[in-house]
Amino acid sequence: MSAPTCRPTHVALPIVVMGVCGAGKSVIGAQLADVLGLPFLDGDDLHPAANVAKMSRGLSLTDEDRKPWLTAVGSWLTDHRSPGAVTACSALKRSYRDQLRAACPDIVFIHLAGDQHIVIDRVASRPDHFMPPSLVASQYQTLEPLQDDETGITLNFDQPVDDLVHAARQWLGTATAA
């Protein structure tokens, strides 16, 4: 776990669990949403069919490919601003996060980061998903970590799910005393 960049000012926020494919965004995001009592969306569900087809063929998406998808994710978060919501969205580049922030300025990010070899194994073990292991390297090449002026925290995804959710809740300021 790394130190947070900026802390959120309140808990009921739009939350993006971000990172490369196979980092655990959907699992952590869904469980975090459940414990916070907030709606959850797997951002992959909003990819246009052309994006899914392209990735299924082992081709990386371009910034232009991602724009309509990020617009849809940003719109969903804006629609669920009150009382807040959680989405899993790669948000790999600062410019992608900026696009999400333009739609929903009070957004916060929980970046799940870690070893590329772990991700390759995880992605290879989910044959029913459209993202092939061959695209993992390009995701790591595209990834721009959170910057100091972005409200977010980076957590190492090579920890138990409950520990990651607890760390996220603590950072968000909602963890209950054990």
Automatic annotation (TrEMBL):
Enzyme Commission no: 2.7.1.12
Domain of life: Bacteria
Molecular-function annotations in GO: ATP binding; gluconokinase activity
InterPro entries: P-loop_NTPase (IPR027417), Shikimate/glucono_kinase (IPR031322), Therm_gnt_kin (IPR006001)
GO annotations of cellular component type: cytoplasm
Xref: PANTHER family: GLUCONOKINASE-RELATED
Recorded family membership: Belongs to the gluconokinase GntK/GntV family.
Name assigned to this protein: Gluconokinase
Organism: Cutibacterium granulosum DSM 20700
